[in-house]
Amino acid sequence: MAEETRSEVMGGKRPAGSLNIRIPETLATYRLPPLIKRFLTFFPETRLNFSTCAFHSLTQDLSQGLYDLAFLLVDSFQAPNLSVKFISVEPLMLITAPDHPLAKKNKIHPRDVGGELLLLSKTDCSYRRMFERYLAEEGIGSLAILELNSIHAIKKCVMEGVGISIMPVIAVKGEISKGQLSGLQWVENCLEAAVLMIWHEEKWISPALKSFMDMAEELGNNYQ
To answer: What is the pTM of this model?
Structure first.
């Protein structure tokens, strides 16, 4: 209500106030910087606050107004009273150390993953749920999982041969090109996750929030 009143008083002035946004670590690291730069060029008075993803409490936090907007990397998402908009698609890739036995295989089957230690991110938590569900549907259960809070920590562990992981391609293509990681060819269709933008359907869309949402959608279209 305070933000809405302030906007009305400002009239034709540039949007101000603050935006609280939840976003997966990968998107925050590799997709967010140009969006922030562009947004603040036009709206320097707006304060941006970002938090990394926590999938399990997302619906509650948006409903309670703790966050104005959220992004997820998932196959699909539905929840009561939340609006969802598709932004783009991020290809995913299984990764290992270059000297890992799986790196010598032409294609990886779900059964190949079952016996491996799977390093998964807490901060990119949505697409990992999708992958775990897929493996369960293929009959691969009782996975050995090690959770870490940082995608960079996961990549370092994989480089050391600790286990394997799955990440968006954008997060690992640099290390793969340098020979520090190996990307595995999945036997099924291409692994990918949709980038979804989510907000509460009763949320007042301030001028600043509307501008951020429009820019995010425009930049997402450029990644297609």
So the answer is: 0.86
